[in-house]
Amino acid sequence: VQTCALPILYKEAMHIAQQLYITFIDDTSKEADAYFPEIKKEEWKETGREDHPTDEKHLYPYSFINYSRIK
User: Fold this and answer.
1) Number of CB atoms found within 10 A of residue 50's CB
2) Alpha carbon distance 22, 39 (integer Å)
């Protein structure tokens, strides 16, 4: 049995983070066993986004999203 501690670490570090650099992969067809904590709109402002569609190298669209803490 393999477990992943990253979601716990991410959740614990959210209160001290000032910036988030997220890679979002738009793949709703697969179930994941670990998730990043919710990014609350009242605490974070999106400051940058770079969207990428599917292509010959990438099966799923993905985005690089930057957030800055507002609260």
Assistant:
1) 10
2) 10
User: Exposed, middle or buried, 15 (CB in 10 Å: 0-12/13-18/19+)?
Assistant: exposed
Average pLDDT over residues 29-49: 87
Structure tokens belonging to residue 6: 């990253």
pTM score, whole prediction: 0.79
- Burial level of 2, CB count in 10 A (0-12/13-18/19+)? exposed
5-29 confidence digits (pLDDT tens): 777 888 888 999 999 999 999 887 6
Residue 3 has pLDDT above 70, yes or no: no
What is the C-alpha to C-alpha distance for residues 9 and 48, in angstroms, rounded to an integer? 24
Q: What is the C-alpha to C-alpha distance for residues 18 and 68, in angstroms, rounded to an integer?
A: 6
